[in-house]
Amino acid sequence: MAETYRKGKSALAAAGNESPAFDAACLFQKVFGYNRQELAVHDGEPAQEPKIGEYTALIEERAQGRPLQYILGKWPFMELELLVGEGVLIPREETELLVRTAAELLKGKENPEILDLCSGTGAVALGLASLFPNAPICAAELYDGAFSYLQKNIIETGFRNVKPVRLDVLHPGTEEFPPLDCIVSNPPYVTADEMKTLQAEVKHEPRTALEGGADGLVFYRAIADLWLPKLKPGGIAAVEVGDKQAAKVASFFRDAGLGQIRVEKDFNGIDRVVAGVREKD
Fold this sequence. Notes:
By secondary structure, this protein is α/β, with parallel strands linked by helices. It has helices spanning 2-14, 20-32, 36-41, 49-63, 68-72, 95-105, 123-131, 144-157, 192-195, 218-227, 246-255, and strands at 74-77, 80-83, 114-117, 137-141, 162-166, 180-185, 231-240, 258-265, 271-278. Helix 7 (123-131) links the parallel strand 3 (114-117) and strand 4. The radius of gyration is 21 Å and the shape is elongated. 42% of the residues are buried.
């Protein structure tokens, strides 16, 4: 079995994969059911031919640039396992900072009313649901592919307090919401120019979940203008932002009547989350 794994790792390395050992191990576990530690125990056992073919096919997909997460069909986020695939943004570790920041600002609020805009897989909404299991949470998503994964992940994780809603953040209709304690969002924020230079692998993800207009700030303007007014006095807002966008987004928040603005850095030292509190009347 170990020889099969090593061949997969070598094929990925030859294709220029940046983490061949990790990726080959993940794909091996998907097909054979053994992680790297278990593989060492079963090293001498022969691999079944049909499974070798299946593993080789997955290695080839990965070598051609299909995201590992899409091949696996699921990916961890906080303590959750979320279903992922073509048509939805892959949850990323830095987005956990958005959830943790919002949760910290919500301390002391019992069952806060929460709205997650541009929900995608539901990572942010479900992450908050894991911390506030009785809070009413609305997860808003527009696009069919992402909305399908949002619905599936709500069912799979069992957080029935999360409600999926079809909604266009930029052009809302007549949707009605109660006064909100919290608005969160990880919106598209890649600029039009940056879209041209994205890694080939990232380009597998839906453009609608990545591009935020010419300057990457289209969604933040809409959130400030159209959505932050729905916050209760004392309600909080928190958004994930791209590199070098924090100062501008913070200014949008201030213009929308939010104070106590804070910017949180991710594990790479990049300003990643902007948050604020709506001033009380």
